[in-house]
Design brief:
The structure is a homodimer. Chain A is of the alpha/beta class. Helix content of chain A is 19%, strand content 30%. In chain A, strands 7-4-6-5-9-8 form a 6-stranded mixed β-sheet. Chain A has a 6-stranded mixed β-sheet with strand order 16-13-17-21-20-18, sandwiched between helices. In chain A, strands 22-25-24-26-28 form a 5-stranded mixed beta barrel. In chain A, strand 20 and strand 21 form a beta hairpin. Chains A and B meet through helix 3, strand 14, strand 15, helix 4 and helix 7 of A and helix 3, strand 14, strand 15, helix 4 and helix 7 of B.
Chain lengths: 401, 401
């Protein structure tokens, strides 16, 4: 059995992991309606102005502003109604001095008019409209290009498409948009004791749950998880599984990176490529391995569920996001009082899984082997490597998943 | 033209809207691997224990604890090695007094043994193992059911499935899970001036962008958006479009709820069912209409993009989440100084769209008609209805989208 040679700090490991990532360069064209949360692979320059024409911003009358000057509540100006225009219509009537056109919000301003008087400031009698309040030129109008001018860069490369940005794309009439492909992440469950979900469980076996949980984290962070079959803990099986998985953008293994008799992953990665680190000062999740094989990163997470998932959240997820051109996660943080004394391990940054109840952070960590530690948790408290004790009632910050 | 009779407050409108929602009762069976962010329609009771057997939590030797009592660094107890067991294997050897079995993490504890001595506290020579440190019974073991006991309710109805919970389901060997169906939300763009994306834009027309943006918000909040064709602003067209849309769980229209000559939606909803409110003291987004037709809710949002999207975020999204059995959104909030004086409207709660730069909240709101106000914004500042002025440099809270 081989001990870890020297563990590196959490920060150092995260830096090595992120520095090693090259965001993917493959792009694809997707329908704008399917582009939510995708990342733009190109800036978007407006090929038209929005709105494409001067339009009314209010219901009222399109007028020449100068015709309204000097009007007042007791001294209205009277204009002649020469037409009416609804949104979507074009009125081929010119508004001349002393005239007006009834106009609906969104309708194109007829020729000659330079402003809109709000309906509330008028009174109509047959073909005469009394205006009780002056307007200045361009009042109650949206000018062509006031929202987006033609030729303007409206969105930049690497922007993530949310509802508002999708609105911008469609307001320009775009049906398709060029985005970065989602990275494909191979997820390989390893271990002779692992049985596939749906199969019968033999004595001494446990069900494969890590690869499902890691796949869920990968999906949440913009990747396409490629869950592979369970691989035995032998050099040959691991080697061929990793080689096969290298057609993906990133290879993640669960199980097989702890220091045990059967810990053959280290040897395999060393043989196929190079090891970037093995062993990190975190708890749980210490036996984490990062290697590089044929320019692809290979991340070996521990087999124990809580350890595996914590490494999934704090290492795999940020790596996937960088691959996918997604910004780093800004996890929501809430302050809470811790419900009991927690003894931590000096020299290891602890991620203490907790649930929240009445402003209290209640530790739910059982042991690295317990999956329920993760299922019950809403987040974790980070206890730095140089802190060995958190007293009951101490104020802590809970980082929400 | 018909004025709003009396506007109700934001809080009142939200309460009416949410109270009117009946979460959907239809359920479906989905593969656990596809269940991320879905809502459990039933509690999950464990049909097996996890782990299913007593297993080693460390690499070492399975022993009788009593055999190790009294051992010390200079006074080891010597045990006879009678076998070796790896994870996934079952060893048909009984450990008797004075004996031990080499065991790997995760392997089933052989009969007779009641504890594990860590490899670090031993020394092996051929078939003899020296134990340098006593262990108590059950030391370095995970007992069967210590994570999940058989019959335990591990997850409850209405829980949202995240990575950890998916791990729990698969650790129980479950392939399928019963979840609530996603609500189907019909999204109907209205307006004679609206052209479909992909078509040629005629003079006086603008592209349909609201229905895409609303669909994106609906999708983000757990619904299946059913985007329908553009409907003309006539009683008959609207009536038949709404009737057709009632096969969905919720009907949302964009455009057509402002007070204009062509504002026929109010009449149509009144004729088909009842109006719950029309006009809310918010800015933008005031001309919002909520009605009920054949027990389905019908939400009419304004046609102006920023107004439409704000109503989408603050009204439609919470309604959809309740329909979908999803918990209310906990939007992330950040503090910032506002970059310029903002004059607000007394009597209307303002949602001021902003972007963030160096800790400053910079208003990006142009006008309700501008889609870029939403695209550039990372969130909004809520200015209560009783505040009419926010001074430059004032501390505000930005609610992130």
């Amino acid at each position: 059995m081989r001990p870890f040679k020297s563990l590196i700090s959490f920060e150092e490991a995260q830096k090595i992991a992120l520095d090693a990532i090259n965001p993917i360069s493959r792009t694809e064209k997707v329908k704008v309606q399917d582009s939510i949360n995708r990342v733009l692979a190109t800036g978007i320059q407006a090929q038209m102005a929005v709105p494409p024409f001067d339009r009314a911003a209010m219901d009222g009358y399109a007028v020449l502003a100068s015709d309204t000057f000097g009007s007042g509540r007791f001294d209205p100006k009277v204009l002649k109604l020469v037409g009416s225009v609804h949104a979507g219509e074009v009125l081929n009537v010119e508004v001349n001095q002393g005239q007006c056109v009834e106009i609906a919000t969104g309708a194109k301003i007829p020729k000659g008019a330079d402003s809109v008087v709000m309906i509330e400031d008028t009174e109509r009698e047959n073909h005469e409209v009394k205006v009780f309040k002056p307007v200045y030129p361009q009042a109650n109008m949206s000018l062509s290009g006031s929202d987006i001018s033609e030729g303007e860069m409206v969105l930049n490369e690497n922007e993530v498409l949310g509802p508002g940005k999708i609105g911008v794309l469609t307001s320009l009439g775009l049906e398709y948009v060029k985005v970065y492909e989602k990275p494909k992440v191979a997820i390989i469950p390893t271990g002779n004791e692992v049985a596939e979900v749906g199969d019968d469980l033999k004595d001494g076996q446990v069900f494969n749950s890590n690869s499902y949980a890691l796949s869920a984290i990968a999906k949440e962070n913009g990747a396409i998880p490629m869950r592979m079959g369970i691989v035995e803990d032998t050099q040959d099986s691991l080697k061929s599984a990793i080689k096969k998985a290298l057609s993906n953008d990133f290879v993640v293994l669960s199980g097989g990176s702890s220091v045990g008799e059967r810990d053959v992953l280290v040897d395999v990665v060393e043989e196929l490529g190079e090891i970037l680190f093995h062993g990190v000062q975190v708890k749980p999740g210490k036996p984490l391995l990062l290697g590089q094989v044929e320019k692809k990163l290979v991340l070996g997470t521990p087999g124990y569920p809580t350890a595996c998932l914590i490494d999934g959240y704090v290492f795999m997820a940020p790596m996937i996001r960088k691959l996918a051109h997604l910004p780093a996660i800004q996890r929501q943080k809430v302050k809470a009082k811790i419900s009991r004394r927690v003894v931590s391990t000096l020299g290891r940054q602890q991620f203490l899984t907790v649930r929240l109840e009445n402003g209290e952070a209640i530790p739910v960590f059982k042991e690295s082997g317990a999956i329920t530690s993760m299922a019950e948790a809403v987040g974790f408290v980070e206890i730095p490597a140089n802190v060995d004790l958190v007293e009951k009632g101490d104020s802590v910050e809970v980082v929400l998943f």
